[in-house]
Amino acid sequence: MFYHRIKVIGLLILSVFMVAGCSEGSEGAKTPLIETALPAPTPTMVAAETDLLTLEDGTEIYFPKASGKCTGPREVMEALLIADLELHNKCLYAADPSSEWRILLIWPACFEIREENNQISVYNRTGEKVAIEGEVVYMGGGEVHRLSEETLATLPKECQESSYWIVGDGVKILKSTYSLNTYTQNVSTTEDVLLLGAMSYATDYNVSVEEAQKRLSLQEAFVILHERLLNNERETFAGAYIQHAPEYRFIARFTDDFQGDIQAYLPDDSLAQYIEVDTTAQYSLAELRLVQIGIIEKLNRCDIRFETSIRVYTNRVELYIADISDFNAALERKHMYIGGKEKINFIEIIFLSEE
Length: 355
Fold this sequence. Notes:
By secondary structure, this protein is an alpha+beta fold. 21% of the residues lie in helices and 32% in strands.
């Protein structure tokens, strides 16, 4: 089974993401949160739905979907999964036929499931067939370990698992002549895996594979630049992100008192054409980190789950909670106050990790 995770650095330039169980003495695990470019939609997921397809033989198939818009860019996790699409216990899973490994798939909003010629097919939001039961499928996305109670209530008990794959937009059918093991051998090299990543990027951002490869090849240099800014412009640097359209750019954010020269930090002068400086940030990354650390220290003493990230684009700490009413009630019980609220965005979200 080929199950390979790719951290697409070009889509993540320092988002500090922490998952914490609000129990006495627990510590937040650190996990990357992908930050897309453009004015990205807020990753608020307050509802989800499960479609129900009844096959000709009367079998019911459940098709869980995340909430979201049917048009425009989405925020998605950018891990890579290549596996067989398998119908198991009334739901569709990504599976390894050579073992018992499988993971339940949570599809994007506006994806559809259909029965065609005694086969189950999945269509994306543009009407393209992107997955067929029994065939190898390539998809972006990421793994979570918990769904909200409301979402679980829409699924049969047989489909309630310990982990779930939140499917991204980049879903493709691979050649049906490949077995998963054969395909694994074909993409086992770093070059082939990077090519698959470039193909997915090209589809997502409507550019050629060659242009996608060129852009992704800049990632290492951008990470070096980011680290230099973080180390040398601590008082004013507010983080950075990649803009994918209308032009490909590394956007470095600073507070308005930035007086440095970003050119001095470039690992290669040829990068200058891709660099843009934005001095409209209110807070430095260091300031936001202090707020985030304070949140984690306080909320680790309460009895609800939460996740938190620093979102560079909005220049705020984001605090993800399942229910704002429960959150406020927990704070009241503990006589706890969260300071620095002007630097925090509170977001209700249905997917919270168990880790």
